[in-house]
Amino acid sequence: MAAFYPAYMLKSMKTLLVLILLSLSAIPHQSRGAQLGRRANWHGAPRDRHINSPCFQRPAEQSSLIRKAQKNKYVIRRILFVGNVNTRDGVLRRRILLQEGNAFRRAILIKTLANLSKLKMIYPVRLSDVMAQLNDEEKTIHVLMCFKERARRT
To answer: 40: which residues sit within 8 A by CB, 6+ positions away?
Structure first.
């Protein structure tokens, strides 16, 4: 794919793909905390504001998707990164053991998260920072990993 498109187009295509994937699993914009009458924290945002984050997937949903993908031998279609502003994709991809086109395995995902967490430029990555989206027709899985970078030293 890199031979056909210039680098600036690949970046915008990647962003477009992430936006499409996130829109497919859109969560309503109104927070669930406001619906349930929960109190807000000091700056007015509900305590469970992570529910509205584009990188949030309910643990029960995530574990069932991961279990289904491993049991039915789903193939990894695409691995996407969100939140890496200063860290290049190549640096992250060198650390991951998951490879597009291979069968998905939870154990390899856990080892990948441990490898990524060793990087000094990002905060440790947990399983809750991973979103899984399945395509049942093609038996493929998209893996979206969300990062938070540390402050850069000048």
So the answer is: 33, 46, 47
* Beta-bridge partner residues of 122: 149
C-alpha to C-alpha distance for 117 and 152, rounded to whole angstroms: 17
Report DSSP state, residue 87. S
Structure-token match 């540390």, residue found: 150
Chain-centroid distance of CA 119 in Å reads 17
What residues pair up with 135 in beta bridges, in sequence order?
140
Per-residue pLDDT of the chain (154 residues; tens, 9 = 90+): 455 656 555 566 666 666 565 555 544 444 434 433 444 333 443 444 445 556 778 889 999 999 999 999 999 999 999 998 998 999 999 999 999 999 999 999 999 999 999 999 999 999 999 999 999 999 999 999 999 999 877 6
Distance CA 141, CA 133 (A): 6
Domains and CATH numbers, the chain: 1-54 (no CATH), 57-154 (3.10.20.310)
**In what order do the strands lie in the sheet containing 130-135?**
75-82, 140-146, 130-135
